[in-house]
């Protein structure tokens, strides 16, 4: 592929205006509502060189088979009632303007996402249901409606994420730069009182590709995260979950998941994946909200800042949403965050994502 010609890339601050238009015109099936018939989305593809990174499976020779299988797009888990691929990313355009995104593709035909212009404090939420789902083991491709994730090469932990809508789109490649994590050490977590889920994460990936707003395109690059979950559980076992992924500047990641019912914690997990050394599971911690935002559209009140404390690691971390108004739909808030504080008594900073899911029953 040819290298990007920066002169052809618009300045991404135009996204602020474009997002304002998109939010105001959004659809019945998405969070958007269109005032004109939708035209077919202009086709586009990534116009940058593919990532050259230590993402070959041979670069991670000690990966257990279950971890390899979790990120093999030729393998699907038809027996599991619930399954999804999830990604998030912190990106910059060629001018250095910050953007973040999250997408979750579910095999039940749901697609959730949010694209955020951090500088302009604007978001484009996407919430689609009843979409056509296609799982192609030969092409290593999972498609939900207008979005897909593909593994072009079985020997590489690299994935192409595509979202193609008339108003906005992305074509991004995610390549692991660190061996995937088997969450809790076993790759299995408890979901509520009786539910179970397989859970594996690529906690750090190099990301680059193309973003589109209408007819305008620009090059994006940055750092991402990929989650794989599948299993079975009853939503009535909890009425809320709080989840966050934190990437520490200089290396190391934290994954935190808290399930709550009637205001009481049912189950919680925390995994610390250091730059070097063994992954730590089962840490005792507290996660305390310190600020909120109320949606003018749904009247729901969401937490937008938190204090995460781990006494055994002499850790106190302040986590703050980049854009408080990151509501995806009436039961889901998800947004990028920044954090600072101490870990093992030493200062840390970084970036991440926080997800709040509310009662769905």
Walkthrough of the structure:
- β21 and β22 form a beta hairpin.
- It is built from 2 helices and 23 strands.
- The N terminus is likely disordered.
- It is mainly beta.
- The chain has a single domain, classed as Beta Barrel (AttH-like fold).
Summarize the helices and strands and which ones pair or pack.
Layout: H1 14-25, H2 65-70, E1 82-92, E2 98-106, E3 111-117, E4 122-128, E5 133-136, E6 141-144, E7 147-150, E8 158-164, E9 168-176, E10 181-182, E11 188-191, E12 195-213, E13 216-232, E14 240-248, E15 253-261, E16 264-273, E17 280-281, E18 286-294, E19 301-310, E20 315-321, E21 327-329, E22 332-343, E23 346-358
Antiparallel strand pairs: 1-2, 1-13, 2-3, 3-4, 5-6, 6-7, 7-8, 8-9, 9-12, 10-12, 11-12, 12-13, 14-15, 14-23, 15-16, 16-17, 18-19, 19-20, 20-22, 21-22, 22-23
Mean pLDDT, as a whole number?
A: 87
Please write the string of helix (H) and strand (E) elements: HHEEEEEEEEEEEEEEEEEEEEEEE
**What would you call the structural class?**
mainly beta
Number of strands: 23
Quaternary organisation: single chain
Précis, in short:
This protein has 361 residues and is mainly beta. The chain has a single domain, classed as AttH-like domain (AttH-like fold).
List keywords for this structure.
AttH-like fold; 361 residues; 23 strands; single chain; disordered N terminus; 13-stranded antiparallel sheet
